[in-house]
Amino acid sequence: MWNFLRNLFRKESKIFLSSDLHLDHKNIIKYCNRPFRNVHEMNYWLINNWNKIVSKEDKVYFLGDLALTKGNKQRVINFIHSLNGRKVFIRGNHDRFLKSYRQFILKYEGKSFYLVHNPANIPSDWYGWSICGHTHQHSPFIDKNRKRINVSPEVTDYKPVNIKDIIRLIED
Fold it and tell me: Does the 13-171 domain belong in CATH 3.60.21.10?
């Protein structure tokens, strides 16, 4: 009975995707021309943007490169706990301390998406849509010819993207 009532009032969770926050990575501001004065401002805005749209119940597939913390495992753990949502990590080239997948196939609303950090690691025999990061602003958010979605923050207004918005865009 209590489970029924709890489920009745539970808000529907959403699914989001993001990548390449590079928290604590001072040089990423310059490399990617991010609009932040310093790493503290960048960390604040990225975490704040995330938590404004992702609830604790939502699921987030994070496609690599969470933070560059110079070997400070506790700092990575603190960042993970500061971000809302139930997180599934796909390993990026800067991730050392995360329990993560190398790739993941997400099935949603009858579609299958290949999730991977670096688009170079998409298998040549995968013909569906892929969602990745790694390329930052050097790839468009959506590439219909290659069937790729880039969820790097530089092309997503520094916010996670809802899977339903991705589906709407690829169906247009």
Answer: yes
